[in-house]
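Below is our example:
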Amino acid sequence: MSQRSTDAAGPTAPAVAEMSELIELLEVVWERGRDTASAPPVSSAQARVLFLVEANGRLNLRELGRLLEAAPPSVTRLCDRLQAVGFLERHPGADDRREVLLRLTPSGLTYLQRLRTRRQEVLAEAMAEMPEASRAALATGLAAFCAAVAKPLRLPAPESFTTRTA
């Protein structure tokens, strides 16, 4: 990959520059995969909602807004659209009927599976061009990177939730 300027300094700067370029390339691949995964059009923002709801299991609108760093009206509109195409369901909370819990529908889960399959096919084609040792090193490095990135995108385990009162 080409050397790009980066604001990062220190020992991580080369890796940050390479990762930035990789992400730009993946965004192109991801869009192609998203467009071929299903008939209903799903935007990138809507796909992020699906991934976050799936990853967190129990998720309400407020928590989703925090994870997306988005305003409540934007989150509600995203969920409205996903519910309209049949990918997301809303349920009242068991303890607080005002709370709205989000869950993927079987169609939503199928969409994510198709999307992942399409993206993995494209990645496998590209990675087949790499030497075996490079693929192994990439897999090891990406596993650690994914763990570091995913940590702040996941909510605490359900047992750590506390009951809140107004």
Remarks:
- DSSP finds six helices and three strands in the chain.
- Residues 160-166 have pLDDT under 50 and may be disordered.
- The beta strands are 59-60, 88-92, 100-104.
- Helices lie at 13-37, 44-56, 61-68, 72-84, 106-127, 132-150.
